[in-house]
From TrEMBL:
<dbReference type="InterPro" id="IPR001753">
    <property type="entry name" value="Enoyl-CoA_hydra/iso"/>
</dbReference>
<dbReference type="InterPro" id="IPR014748">
    <property type="entry name" value="Enoyl-CoA_hydra_C"/>
</dbReference>
<dbReference type="Pfam" id="PF00378">
    <property type="entry name" value="ECH_1"/>
</dbReference>
<dbReference type="GO" id="GO:0016853">
    <property type="term" value="F:isomerase activity"/>
</dbReference>
<dbReference type="InterPro" id="IPR029045">
    <property type="entry name" value="ClpP/crotonase-like_dom_sf"/>
</dbReference>
<dbReference type="InterPro" id="IPR018376">
    <property type="entry name" value="Enoyl-CoA_hyd/isom_CS"/>
</dbReference>
<comment type="similarity">
    <text>Belongs to the enoyl-CoA hydratase/isomerase family.</text>
</comment>
<protein>
    <submittedName>
        <fullName>2-(1,2-epoxy-1,2-dihydrophenyl)acetyl-CoA isomerase</fullName>
        <ecNumber>4.2.1.17</ecNumber>
    </submittedName>
</protein>
<keyword id="KW-0413">Isomerase</keyword>
<keyword id="KW-0456">Lyase</keyword>
<dbReference type="GO" id="GO:0004300">
    <property type="term" value="F:enoyl-CoA hydratase activity"/>
</dbReference>
Length: 263
């Protein structure tokens, strides 16, 4: 259910259950996590690109999955869907958010529920103009998960986050870009080429500095200004001792293209 392709230093992961709009089964969630783990440990992979097969990115949790679908029989005990979060979505979201390389999402169609959370958990989110984002949770009596409650207010602020999460309406890619929910919208026909080019560009950049930037920004959200300044100094000191800074600065002074290698 996850197709894996290598394009130079870019590892492309394609969610692949198009007949169900790439809705996540437990098997698929496990495979996606494994695929991320494999990309994280492959030293030749310097960027991960995630997209969906067919007309959707992902419709979120597969609601027909026996772990999730409420039993229709009278008196049947309710299922603990929290279990699914503990064992599948939390490890997946943590793995995604702590990748040692940048992660780009190419949102090729609808991203609903946990499918939207996975897309929005990536470092850069590109979308085709026919793509859309749906906080589908409220429509079925649930709350945003897989990081949705954390990501949404940080990306678009409390007012818009609550509007999206409470109403659960379909948000078109262009509106998602306007709100600052995603990075960029592209014509559908250009999405994959542009996403691969962006991923290749990131892959040629100083990976460690890119990842530390993500970490520092996430941390800074918890800090006051002075604490953030001091944390920047600690991290920058570490970056200054790394090979990539030496290479980047010397290449600039020598007017040549740098060859970064830290990861
Ligand atoms: C699906 C699904 C789907 C199964 C389309 N499941 N089959 C939840 C529970 C527990 C713990 C953990 O966390 C979560 C997190 C969540 O993700 S909750 C949110 C779950 N997702 C949704 O509620 C979205 C449900 N899907 C839709 O609203 C629509 O399918 C969208 C708006 C995504 C697309 O609409 P259409 O383009 O009109 O396509 P469609 O509805 O006709 O779907 C095509 C097929 O895909 C269809 O199957 P069929 O056999 O009739 O062709 C759907 O049943 C199937 N499908 N989403 N989540």
């Amino acid at each position: 259910t996850i197709l894996i392709e290598q394009h130079g230093a870019v590892r492309l992961l394609r969610l692949n259950r198009p007949e169900a709009l790439n809705a996540f089964t437990t098997g698929m969630l496990g495979q996606l996590r494994q695929a991320l783990e494999a990309a994280a440990t492959d030293v030749d992979t310097r960027c991960v690109l995630i997209t969906g097969a067919g007309r959707a990115f992902s419709a979120g949790q597969d609601l027909a999955d026996p772990h999730v679908a409420p039993s229709r029989e009278a008196g049947a005990p309710p299922k603990d869907i929290g279990h699914l979060l503990d064992h599948f979505y939390i490890p997946l979201a943590l793995r995604l958010r702590s990748m040692p390389v940048p992660v780009v999402a190419a949102v090729n169609g609808v991203a609903a529920g946990a499918g939207a959370s996975v897309a929005l958990g990536c470092d850069l989110v590109l979308a085709g103009e026919s793509a859309s984002f749906i906080q589908a949770f409220s429509k079925i009596g649930l709350i945003p998960d897989c990081g949705g409650t954390w990501l949404l207010p940080r990306l678009v602020g409390r007012a818009k986050a609550l509007e999206l999460a409470l109403l659960g309406d379909k948000l078109k890619a262009a509106d998602a870009e306007r709100l600052g929910l995603i990075s960029r919208v592209l014509p559908d026909a250009e999405l994959m080429e542009a996403a691969l080019a962006t991923a290749q560009k990131l892959a040629a950049m100083p990976t460690r500095a890119l990842v530390e930037t993500r970490i520092a920004m996430d941390e800074a959200l918890k800090f006051d200004f002075e604490t953030a300044l001091k944390r920047e100094a600690v991290l920058q000191s570490q970056m200054g001792f790394a090979y990539d800074y030496l290479e980047g600065a010397v290449a600039f002074l020598d007017k040549r293209k740098p060859q970064f290698r830290d990861r």
